[in-house]
Specification:
By secondary structure, the chain is mainly alpha-helical. It has a domain of 149 residues. The strands form two sheets. Strands 1-4-3 form a three-stranded mixed sheet, covered by helices on one side. Helix 2 packs antiparallel against helix 6. The N and C termini lie far apart (47 Å). The C terminus is likely disordered.
């Protein structure tokens, strides 16, 4: 069996969004409203974390399939755990963004000029469903409600097809995450992560609140 891993990297955002943190610490917060600053900081922090966990998940996935001297199950298990945390952070970040976009603040006006797909009801529901499956799967396992053959942990997977030129050989394409009956293709996941990163960059360059309008301790500590 040949294995092809189709999981686009997110290396361009590996360092996170330091300009946001530098501006919020040394210049001014993005808003005079404490809650808006709390939402903005939480959103940026969760997007940074989601990208880190995604990259680590891909790295461990590649490590598993490139280890030929042993069955490196530890790498595969850690890969799944990293992707679980990534999806959970994306779900939480989406909730923060949707709330932030509804706030009565100049930042909300700026964020409403674009309509990112990750924040639509349909995609947000997919995050929620997979996050809930991840967080409640042990209940199904404990109660014996897992059907034979169902995935009881998030795992990278994909279709296996006959090799076009080698008889008896197959090509396994790892291009998605699967849990239970749900799946999420890596290309979708990275598209939404890049949208989230774009929003974080937009927040980072948003003009700071005026000095006269700032309230004491406007920028919250996470």
């Amino acid at each position: 069996m040949y294995v092809e891993i189709e999981a686009p990297g997110m290396e361009e955002y590996a360092q996170g969004f330091p300009s946001y943190w530098l501006k919020s610490i040394f210049i001014a917060s993005v808003s005079s409203q404490y809650q808006v600053n709390a939402l903005a900081s939480t959103y940026v922090r969760l997007v940074e974390a989601a990208i880190v966990e995604y990259n680590m998940g891909v790295s461990k996935l590649q490590e598993f399939w490139s280890t030929h001297t042993s069955l490196n199950l530890g790498a595969m298990h850690r890969s799944g755990s990293h992707f679980e945390t990534c999806l959970s952070n994306m779900y939480r970040a989406t909730n923060c963004f949707r709330k932030l976009r509804r706030s009565q603040d100049a930042l909300a006006v700026a964020l409403n000029t674009d309509k990112p797909v990750f924040a639509t009801d349909a995609v947000a529901a997919r995050f929620k469903d997979m996050r809930n499956d991840i967080h409640h799967m042990e209940e199904l396992v404990i109660d014996g409600r897992i059907k034979a053959g169902d995935s009881f942990a998030l795992r990278p997977d994909g279709p296996e097809t006959p090799h076009p030129s080698e008889a008896g050989q197959t090509i396994k394409k790892i291009d998605r995450l699967v849990i239970g009956s749900r799946e999420l293709v890596f290309s979708e996941l990275t598209t939404w992560l890049k949208e989230m990163a774009g929003v974080a960059e937009k927040i980072a360059v948003f003009g700071p609140a005026s000095t006269s309008g700032l309230v004491e301790n406007a920028n919250p500590t996470p």
